[in-house]
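Minutes, structural biology subgroup

Action item carried over from last meeting: produce the structure token record for cytochrome-c oxidase (Janibacter alittae). EB confirmed the sequence was re-checked against the source entry. Recorded below for completeness.
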Amino acid sequence: MRRGIGAIGLVAALSVVSACSAVGVHTDPKNGYLPEGVTEESVLVENLWIWSWVAALAVGVLVWGLMLWCIVAYRKRKDDDGSLPVQLQYNVPLEILYTVVPMFMVGALFFYTEQAQSQLIDVSQEPDVTVNVVGKQWSWDFNYVEADVHEAGHMAPLDGEAGHEKNLPTLYLPKGERVEFILTSRDVIHSFWVPAFLEKMDVNPGIVNRFQVVPSQTGTFQGKCAELCGAYHAQMLFNVKIVEPAEYEAHMQELRDKGQTGLLGNDLNREDINQRDRDLVPDLTDDEETN
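Output recorded by EB:
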């Protein structure tokens, strides 16, 4: 009884933790409580997630049913003489069943996972927009390749005050157009994660990773680094703004008017720490800059 209560408490605690991690992200029971996907590719993740749970629950119901059947059918009765039931060394059909069936289940899960993953990382189509996302300690730069303009990000302050999200680096994307992300890093391993995309990808130094999405819904969404990358990893935040194509072009022109033309380099330069970042983190020492 105590173990049962403890298990229920553990499940409840995990549920609370999961709910806390989803603060600010809209979830829907129709897609398995995942964040609402805002790209055409999101449905691939949703379908894989939902049907994996359906299969897992089906197996669970079967196993629980067999357990309950054994408990009821082979319970101790009043007329039992205490002797053990007939002991069998093996049962070939049963052993084949519980060996072969799980292999088919794992094979099916692998097949559909690989199928979805192959489509998610497919970059064979010609993109309408190419964005070079540059990870750095501890912010992001965005190079809009076709427009030949850039946005340089600064580390987000986490001082408990509201309104800082307005000053975060903002990645603009046009709705309905195919966008290819080219992910590069200036220093250590980062991870480019937009929860509303339902996918993320590592940003590795010396390696170029790519993936494509087609934004399907306008709005402003959160982005962050999902790989522990140093002391101020938690402050590596950014916004994603999906807008109509006309507004996207207007923003590109706005960057040109600000003089943010050309593309920022991907070379490593740890000594070039923005003064604004120094002001946001007064205790940032020279040793932390170069380590």
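Discussion: Residues 130 and 180 are 5 Å apart (CA to CA).
Next step: EB to file the record with the rest of the batch.
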